[in-house]
Design a protein that fits this description.
Elements (H helix, E strand, L loop, with lengths): L4 H8 L5 H12 L1 H4 L4 H8 L3 H10 L5 H12 L5 H11 L5 H18 L3 H13 L3 E5 L4 H14 L3 E4 L4 H7 L8 E5 L6 H12 L3 E6 L12 E4 L3 E3 L2 E3 L1 H17 L4 H14 L9
Parallel strand pairs: 1-2, 1-3, 3-4, 4-5
Antiparallel strand pairs: 6-7
Length: about 290
């Protein structure tokens, strides 16, 4: 579990030295700025040495200052307002070459997601989806695009797939009123986490349905609610979060479900191709 650095600072404050107290107070008051400072810059800002900052991180139980800074960054992503995110981006983003900065950040996020991938959880999610009587998919706010993409392909592969739309609070539960044991609920949420998605997940859990959560880290509110958790990192980019890694994870989930289906997936798509041709769904390029 990721350490909540603000809770650590509150619990350990009594044993801090005078310099460490200055570091702690600055982080509490300016966590949005401190999360992206080097140890040297943080030390200069509060008037202590870089080595004092490094020792401070170790005393809190982190492997080093970079580990503490990473935990702080993870924590603040769900707390920063859009205005604060824009301010952070001004300090960290290379505005002279935005496309290179963004794509390089996405590549790093994909590599991190792959390195931390839990194959056992991924395979459990695939098996649960294949054996489910009904599959309910919920993703709200910026995660709506992920839910719709997943639902689009699952509707081609499976029967009884429902994408829950959040046009109104009551309608979410009306669309889920028949969910029960034997069904699977898939919730998708990234910072800033959607309360509606979490509440829908808890509702599904209370009915006995199997619950799968697709989210970013162990600091997610899905932890402790979902039966199976699939993590894909997202990267904070100014006022938005990059969802490249979550989309890649969802691609893998769709392909894995298709590969393990007992029905002939080729015959399914052969029939679809015939329907698409008859009803001129796609542009063929023919004159």
């Amino acid at each position: 579990m990721e350490k909540d650095i603000l809770a650590l600072l509150a619990n350990e404050n009594g044993g801090f030295s005078k310099g460490q107290k200055r570091i702690a107070q600055y982080i509490v008051d300016n966590y949005d700025k401190a999360a992206f400072m080097t140890a040297g810059r943080l030390g200069d800002t509060v008037g202590v040495s870089e080595s004092t900052v490094v020792r401070f991180a170790a005393e809190l139980g982190y492997d080093g200052y970079p580990s503490m800074r990473k935990a702080l960054q993870e924590m603040i992503r769900s707390r920063l307002t859009s205005v604060q995110r824009i301010e952070v981006a001004r300090q960290t983003l290379n505005t002279d070459n935005v496309i290179r900065s963004i794509i390089n950040a996405d590549v790093e996020t994909l590599e991190l997601t792959l390195s931390e991938c839990d194959r056992e959880s991924f395979d459990a999610a695939v098996d649960a989806i294949i054996s489910a009587k009904h599959v309910y998919i919920v993703g709200m706010r910026s995660s709506t695009c992920l839910a719709n993409f997943l639902g689009f392909y699952f509707n081609l592969l499976l029967e009884n797939v429902y994408i829950i739309h959040d046009t109104a609070v009551s309608e979410v539960y009306e669309q889920m009123m028949r969910i029960k044991q034997g069904d699977v609920f898939i919730g998708i949420s990234y910072p800033r986490y959607s309360k509606r998605t979490l509440r829908a997940m808890k509702f599904a859990k209370s009915t006995g349905a199997s619950v799968i959560g697709i989210t970013d880290a162990e600091s997610s509110p899905f932890v402790g609610v979902a039966d199976t958790l699939l993590y894909a990192k997202s990267n904070m980019v100014s006022f938005l979060d990059s969802l490249v890694a979550p989309m890649s994870l969802i691609n893998a989930l769709i392909v894995s479900v298709g590969a393990k289906l007992k029905t002939d997936i080729e015959s399914t798509f052969s029939r679809l191709e015939s329907i698409w041709k008859d009803y001129e769904v796609y542009e063929t390029g023919e004159l």
